[in-house]
Amino acid sequence: MSADADSPSRSYAPAASRWAVRLVAVGLVLAALNLRPAISALGPLLKEVRADLGMSGAVAGLLTSVPALCFAVFGSLAPRLARRRGPAPVVLAGMVTITVGLVLRPLAGGTGAFLAASALALAGIAVSNVLMPVVVKRWFPSRVGTMTGLYSMGLALGTAGAAAVTVPMTGALGGSWRAGLGAWALLGVLAILPWAFVLKDPGSRRAETPPPVRGGSGTASSAPAAPGEDGRIRIGASPTAWALGVFFGLQASAAYIIMGWLPQIFRDAGVSASSAGLMLAVTMGMGVPLAFVVPRLATRMRHQGPLVAALGVCGITGYAGLWLAPAEGAWLWALLLGVANCAFPVALTMISLRSRSSAGVVKLSAFAQSTGYLLSIPGPLLVGALRDATGGWHAPLLLMAALLLAQTFTGVLAGRDRVIEDGR
């Protein structure tokens, strides 16, 4: 679907004032920055957290899969909440929930309390994850690519920044992991402020409702709803929704695999630990500039399939390089896999493009992300199991390549110029 299809006339949100729209833009970026530090800040301090709380290895391993599970479970609640309250109040509640979880986590005296506080923060992240494409569709219907790019760039910055800054910040705050993790609650407070002010605008508080149609007498009358625009979209019966959900899950699985295992692949090939960590930073850092460019390119295309295929080629080339010459071309493979990871902002952009209305986008976003995050859970675990069973990386790389081929295929299907309201 071309960008022209995202004209304001296709979104039924009440008109918001200009100042509210500007605040939403600021809030969108701050929310994106706040959606990953609860996850990526924990990894560098996990050893200290485990030692202090007496956390077992099994529970520590569970922490790596809990985010995706929480995203799937809690994200499914977003459509009902947004339908009743509107997206802005629900995003505000999500930011508050994240902040409270980040405040409570350092106060935990045991593993159970730590997990509960983490789950609270992840619940807020899950709901906000689903509603970010909805916010873009509702307030910026003619700038989907630009605003999705800003949001995706904020996500990448929040992820990489928390991973890089948490350890030195912890040292500056006295060396306690509690202070290092708790400091990220300040970012949550900052993200709350613009959304609290947005709610002062009446048009931003209301849930989406189709506008009345004036009859010949000048009175309001109800026009027949377009297919699927009456709130009864059969999302589970849409092949486009399923293709997008599977595509989202496979790209998330690839990202988790790369984040979890790429440094080890390089280290097993003889690369030093510091260099392997730096290469992972390069891979993840590629998402910062490209996340702003790729969505804008996607909205200019009627069919996003060729873009998905191009990213797939980069990923396959990177995996082939890891198979044939992991150490010799390590920097090149890291760059190519960083480009391939931009399937994430493409998936977010397609969520906004595959429905005519904000009501459709919230259902599609919840379905695609909940389905996708559930599908993403086994991937990293299977890669680790194959590595242990075979003692090398060839079998895991074959699995990674197969998953990427499936990702590309489903992404091409999801990228076709059609919307979920059109049914089959």
Key terms:
mainly alpha, Growth Hormone, Chain: A, two-stranded antiparallel sheet, 2 strands, globular, disordered N terminus
Describe this structure in words.
The chain is mainly α and 424 residues long. It has two domains: 1-208, MFS general substrate transporter like domains (Growth Hormone, Chain: A); 237-424, Growth Hormone, Chain: A (Up-down Bundle). The protein is 72% helix and 1% strand. The protein contains 20 helices and two strands. The chain has helices spanning 18-34, 37-40, 46-53, 57-75, 78-85, 87-104, 111-139, 144-172, 177-182, 185-198, 202-205, 239-268, 273-285, 287-299, 305-324, 330-340, 343-353, 358-376, 378-390, 394-414, and strands at residues 213-214, 220-221. A two-stranded antiparallel ribbon has the order 1-2.
Structural class: mainly alpha
In spatial order, strands of the major sheet run: 1-2
The top-level CATH class of the largest domain is: Mainly Alpha
Query: How many separate structural domains?
Result: 2
Characterize the overall form.
globular
Return residue spans where pLDDT drops below 50 for at least 5 consecutive residues: 1-14, 209-230
Global mean pLDDT: 83
CATH topology category name of the largest domain: Growth Hormone, Chain: A
Give the full name of the CATH homologous superfamily of the largest domain. Answer: MFS general substrate transporter like domains
What is the overall number of helices? 20
Helix/strand order: HHHHHHHHHHHEEHHHHHHHHH
Region (Disordered): 206-230
Pfam family, one: MFS_1
Transmembrane segments: 20-39, 59-78, 90-108, 114-136, 148-169, 181-199, 241-262, 274-294, 306-325, 331-353, 365-387, 393-414
Protein name: Transporter
